[in-house]
Amino acid sequence: MELILKQDVQNLGFKDDVVSVKPGYGRNFLIPQGFAILATPSAKKVLAENLKQKAHKEAKIVADAKSLAEAIKALEIKITAKAGGEKLFGSVTNADIAEVLEKNGHAIDKKFITSGIVKRTGKYNASIRLHRDVIVELAYEIVAEKA
Question: Which of 9, 14, 24, 139 has the fewest Cβ atoms within 10 angstroms?
Fold first, then answer.
């Protein structure tokens, strides 16, 4: 079953993508939740026209995302957390990274950050999706909080 996505769906595709899914997933979840519409020939023509009109705006958005990516790459981030030796009391998650980025002047939603849950001190990498075409790797370090 072919569908046109009306918004980003994790592990499936981005807004305005034409995707092929199993009929049950499409009819019972994606369409009723408003995440997708059926990809009929007329809907595909409307989508093609909309994409043609959005192409110019999209180029500016990608350029802005690339400049933000360069700014994020230049950052040196150290996150302090309570720890006993190497092991943290708790963990460092995407929300913590988003909070540190916001303090540095870059407001990025935590759902666009992929780092996993970190429970030890050391150096790690997180990938940040700024746009469907722009993904940046952010190196960060977790250090133990001094008592």
Answer: 24
